[in-house]
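Hey, can you fold this?
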Amino acid sequence: MKKIVIFGLFLMVIPGVLKAQTVNKIPFTTIDYTTNRLKNDSVNANTQQMNAFIQIPLLHNEKRLIGTRIAYNSQNITNVDDMMNAYLYGISANLYWRRTFAPGKQLHIFAQAGLYSDLKDISGNNFRYLFGATYITQKTEKLKTGLGLGYARQFFGHQIIPFISVNYKISDRWTFSGALPMRPQLSYVISERWIWVLQINGNVESYRLSEKDDDNAFIQTTTWEGLSKIKYVFAKKHQIHFGLGIMQQTINRYADASSNNWKIITFDLSKRDEPTDRIKLGGTTINFGYSLLF
């Protein structure tokens, strides 16, 4: 799944590290598509995700950076059953603020609000939000670390997202980075143009269904995936990528309720509401996309 996985916003905080002419470049805009072949003992399902975003720096000087991101994602679930099959969409706006207090010491604050539904009808029940912060320090020339905490108000209740941010340049070619534990990645620079990435992604999403057709029920997806990806940079500002991996996904459908469940990352701390339908699937994932770099 991917991405906006709820943690997609963290890519603004911890951009992937490239080499040579592409050092420290981050995407200005990205279009990304994923197709998954998932199954269990009784179901052979297909799910597809499309993600697109544009992010724009609003203010940038030595001490401050303010940026915004507008994002779109869709998640299509087919060949599961009539209660689970759905076309789901998310449209969100993000705001990001970074403050440098001293050399090597930075505070990052981020917030997001968005519409997540099947778009058959729209009301205030279709919106959810998240916010959080991380404090990053430069430990050595090769190592940056940070402690962060995020909070997301999802349709199922509350999600707490503690994380450790890491950017460790192991050598000229190898870099370990990401938001641990939900998005670690290991990168290897093959050449100026080619980069190989091995990554793990954990994500929870929830989407409100139609009030008219589904009585405001909602679908929650919990996804963990491992992905091997190759990136190719050309003309200094363009990047394409292709990846293969494995995925485990749990899809729950809930009746409309004043949910007060709690999760930490993707793990349940409380289960006050039981799903009306649940299915667990595993299988393979294929991902490809394009980015225009700063």
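Oh, and this one too while you're at it.
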Amino acid sequence: MQSVSYQENTLKEKLEYCFKEYETLIKGNSLFKINLPNLSSSPFPIDIIVKEFKKTRDGFAHGRFTDISDEAIAGFVAVKIFLYIMQLKHIGYNDENIHKILEKIYH
């Protein structure tokens, strides 16, 4: 996969691509150190996040407005950060400046 824009890729594949592609930007970033009781010991459990995304989306689509899980919120935050990274890279910011910008936004 060369980009997250290809529609035939799954959400899991897109998230895996982002974590790999932007590893230097998120490595050591406290925003990606998730300490939620229901999550595994992995740094960012993509499988659980994807499952919660789907569950939340299906609930809203079928009129079941329930609480959004911590796992789904963590996924939404990750996607938002990746969108910032992609936009800032697109307009020419380097990794160091992007990292500084993310730190200012989230801290």
